Amino acid sequence: MSTVDETVTVAAPGEDVASARGRLRPLRWLFVLVLAVLAAQLVLFLVRNERFQWDVVAKYLFEKSVMAGLGTTVVLAIAAMALGSLIGGVVAAMQLSGFAPARWVATLWVGLFRGIPPLVQLIFWFNLAYLLPKLSIGIPFGPVFGSWDANTVITPLTAAVIGLSLVESAYLAEIFRAGMGAVDPGQRDAARAMGYPPAQTLLRIVLPQAMRVIVPPAGSQFINVLKGTALVSVIAMSDLLHSVQVIYNRTYEIVPMLLVACFWYLVVVTALTAGQRWLERRFSRGHRPVAVRRSR
Question: Containing domain of residue 223, as a range?
Fold first, then answer.
């Protein structure tokens, strides 16, 4: 099937198409003009409005407490994504299992932690000591090996990691399940015929092919959990948002401090997006259309 270029050329009878001029498209030029006017208006609004207080933004952009909050945000997002991926992978495998009770438990897990808002879960885990004053490890209905005070164990950091990880595990389980389900069943049959055990089939045959489908939504989910860490400020977690809140509660410079937070969120998200694009290209090698590869 042949491809047709978007640029339509107009050639007179007997004229070479290669030297023909492109057709004038006034709607496209009008769209570009409107964009230019809106962009100029936005720039003037940002520059002329003194209430943005750009000098205050520059003053606090690299403030020590702000940078510490940014580091906490990034570390918290990485921890939540790592634990969420581990748990989500197990839940996805249970969903694809032929053992019905495992599928029921996995379905309940996804429905529970995906159905309750993350903010509610964070507050619940932060107040876990109300239900369990003592956290213990032992044999059910048997001896206890160790016991700890719940108020000591459930800190804002612990509650944030638990809450965000469980939320992410539900979403990532669905992403992993969809990715593994997109692999041709014949690949599993061929691996089984060659004597591969189920675990080796999953790790060496199915998962490498599923990554092409898993990486884009998983990368987007990582960006979502990074932005979702702003919710931990309600449990007094010193993340990026909480750090700027502490400053503007003291100086009453709300808009400039929020601009500082927006700047660093955009920087980190842009870096993560670039990494996601690189992973997408890496795992999509051999799957892109021929025309795309030639154009590159």
Answer: 73-282
